[in-house]
Amino acid sequence: MKPRLILADDHKIVLDGLRGLLAAEFDIVATAADGRELVRLVKELKPQAVVADISMPLLNGIEAARQLPGVKFVFLTMHPEPSYLLRALQAGALGYVLKHAAAEELTVAIRRALAGKTYVSPGLRTPAVEEMPRSLELTPRQREVLQLLAEGKSAKEIGAILEISARTVETHKYTMMDELGVRTSAELVQHAIKEGLVSP
User: Fold this and answer.
1) Which of 31, 132, 170, 194 is the most buried (most CB within 10 A)?
2) Helix, strand, or coil here: 125?
3) Tens digit of pLDDT per residue, the chain (200 long)?
4) Measured between alpha carbons, how far is 144 from 162 in angstroms, rounded to an integer?
5) Domains and CATH numbers, the chain
């Protein structure tokens, strides 16, 4: 089964081009020409991801994303300004690709979004964007692992407490590190404390 997508752009030529680019790998279940139509279609058809322009009539893409929490959004846009990117990420978007790079980057961005990971066009990864606090939805098990990491316990000790293997503990840890873009256990714990996910 191909992953189900909805495409949204107010230019038919763009929608036709996207359909040609994506149809081999994804099932395009609908297209929308404005933000309100997009919101209606997503609620009705429940796609696995949405590829949308930001600048659309009636309701822009970012506001549409705000109205559809939990939906995996990839924005395909002309806007290279960091302010747009930050607003898109804050609205919950997982992907942000510039239109001129669609052929090379869009499929990768959609795949990452479907896996719950973020993709931003390389030219836009400025320090301001990299330092933006990412929100992290943790599973109950991840919260347990994070709490015990913050208490200074090793993977082996955590595994014994939670009755799971040390390898499973490491998998949870690296999944959280990857989603947050941190490189060490110490950074992961610092982020967890800062976000109030665990007590210091």
Assistant:
1) 31
2) coil
3) 999 999 999 999 999 999 999 999 999 999 999 998 999 999 999 999 999 999 888 889 998 998 898 999 999 999 888 878 988 988 899 999 999 999 999 999 999 999 999 999 987 876 666 565 555 566 778 877 887 888 788 999 999 988 999 999 999 898 888 777 788 888 888 877 776 655 55
4) 8
5) 4-130 (3.40.50.2300), 140-194 (1.10.10.10)
